[in-house]
Amino acid sequence: MVLGCGLIGRRSLAVLGACARRSLGPALLGFLFHHTDLRKSAVVEQAAMKVELLPALTDNYMYLLIDKDTKEAAIVDPVQPQKVMETVKKHGVKLTTVLTTHHHWDHAGGNEKLVKLEPGLKVYGGDDRIGALTNKVTHLSTLQVGSLNIKCLSTPCHTSGHICYFVSKPGSSEPPAVFTGDTLFVAGCGKFYEGTADEMYKALIEVLGRLPPDTKVYCGHEYTINNLKFARHVEPHNAAIQEKLAWAKEKYGIGEPTVPSTIAEEFTYNPFMRAREKSVQEHVGETDPVTTMRAIRKEKDQFKVPRD
Known about the structure:
By secondary structure, the chain is of the alpha/beta class.
């Protein structure tokens, strides 16, 4: 969570965010939306595409993806539809597409309202539990948003129907982007609610890990500081973790997002992406990457985050 002032503690917000993810969210909307206002949006602009990071709820991100050639746009996980439409109007673009990473309320819970506000939207996702779904996708399904190519990557584990969306521009030398929902976070990964360590290993290492190293990673939550504190616990002598944590604390202090990272960066400080590294395996007393993945996820689920 990136908050500009201390009106409420991180622990309290985390509890409220967890309630939202257990489908209790609508009762908390007024409270959560108020505190979202303390977190700043940001725009990442390239020649071919523009991405606006839109904070939502306590620690979620929605993403407005704009094709600059055609002014066509897609929205990733639009849990706050009104905020989405205000941003679409601000940019003067045509919203055509909803990209839903998974069915949890804090990601898919705004779909039905959004399609009422903007009739005709195509709603993509990999799970029948996603509201207002019009186009069900599978691994390597493709679609277009203007001149941008989007490839769907199946990454089951957090949920069985989780999809990440890889966005590229044909012929461009600029970095592509991937929207990873709750599969890959900055320095972390999602809980294994509906899957196994083997599935998460495949998702992180064999699917996302094989994307171009400069791919920008846009994840579903602002969990970076706590993730890096766990990473520091796993690898206390890893300088990349220390540097990223100091940087993330600075960003947090001024209310700015710590997203995006890159695939290359994640391999330097994310313990789940580093399950093949001897230093991570030694921490949990394992030699196999998948059992290492299982062990560090179990440890993180019970990890008490230090204050420093």
